[in-house]
From TrEMBL:
TM helices/strands, residue ranges: none
Gene Ontology biological-process entries: proteolysis
Gene Ontology CC: one annotated term: cytoplasm
Domain Peptidase C14 caspase span(s) in chain numbering: 4-253
Pfam family, one: Peptidase_C14
Alphabetized PANTHER family for the sequence: METACASPASE-1, METACASPASE-4
Superkingdom of source: Bacteria
Stated name of the protein: Caspase domain-containing protein
MF terms (GO), sorted A to Z: cysteine-type endopeptidase activity
Length: 264
């Protein structure tokens, strides 16, 4: 049974004024942890993460997996949205990942990702970790690790990257929703940095840029050593949401999947 992973991190968005700081560190951090769990890991960083390269790498990750294999996909970068054109979205929006060449090649739609996920062989276990997008509400949480300056949202409004006259008419921001590409049976799981209507935040801890969700998820993994996904998720919620990081992490998957051993 093979264990393969792809970690994507994009800080640089040419043609916009919306560069991020912590996404590349996120990708390298996830890669290091996954290698420690026995995964064969590939990365796409900044200019490597073109739309074409992301489609190809995700397709290879999914397409090469055989029955019994585990695949992990992590994404840290901006999320965005477009008007839905095929009527399959209740909110009239197609959510999307933002590749490095977003302004020239366009986004990677959730429809594209769902299609790739659906090509999996039977009994291939998929874990998707998304630290992107969203907007939210204020509550409490331990912020002792967080640097004092304000974090930045990982959401890229269409007006930033689309040409004038082509902007969609749907008036509000959206989050990336990928759980529709997960199977309702077996070991599929999505760990997301926040709810659909929220932002995930790009910030700093002890001077080092990271996504808030990634930082706390990996801190818990190292510090508390949870054995199953439900334990891990519960521990992350001790830190998020907080006053300056108003994001509520989410976990999607069957009860049995949530009771599985982490990265097994």
């Amino acid at each position: 049974m093979a264990k393969n992973a792809l970690c994507i991190g994009i800080n640089d968005y040419p043609g916009t004024d919306s560069d991020l700081s912590g996404c590349v560190n996120d990708a390298h951090d996830w890669a290091a942890v996954l290698q420690g769990y026995g995964f064969n890991v590939s990365t796409l960083i900044d200019e490597q993460a073109t739309r074409e390269a992301m489609l190809g790498a995700i397709g290879n990750l999914i397409g090469s997996a055989q029955s019994g294999d585990t695949v992990v996909l992590t994404y840290s970068g901006h999320g965005t949205w477009l008007e839905d054109t095929d009527g399959d979205e209740p909110d009239a929006r197609d959510e999307a990942l933002c590749p490095w060449d977003l302004t020239t090649a366009g986004p990677l739609l959730d429809d594209d990702i769902h299609s790739l996920f659906n090509t999996r062989a039977a009994d291939v276990r998929l874990l998707l970790i998304s630290d992107s997008c969203h907007s939210g509400s204020v509550t409490r949480g331990d912020e002792s690790d967080l640097d004092a300056d304000a974090p930045r949202a990982r959401f890229l409004p269409p007006a930033v990257w689309m040409k004038p006259g082509t902007l969609p008419s749907v008036p509000r921001a959206s989050a990336l929703t990928l759980e529709g590409g997960l199977r309702r049976v077996g070991g599929d799981l999505l760990l997301a940095g926040c709810r659909d209507e929220q932002y995930s935040w790009d910030t700093r801890f002890a001077g080092r840029p990271n996504g808030a969700f990634t930082y706390y998820a990996l801190k818990i993994l190292k510090q508390d050593k949870p054995q199953i996904y439900d334990q891990w998720f519960t521990a992350i919620r001790k830190y998020l949401p907080s006053t300056r990081l108003p994001q509520e992490p989410q976990i999607f998957g069957t009860r049995s999947a949530r009771q599985m051993r982490i990265f097994d």
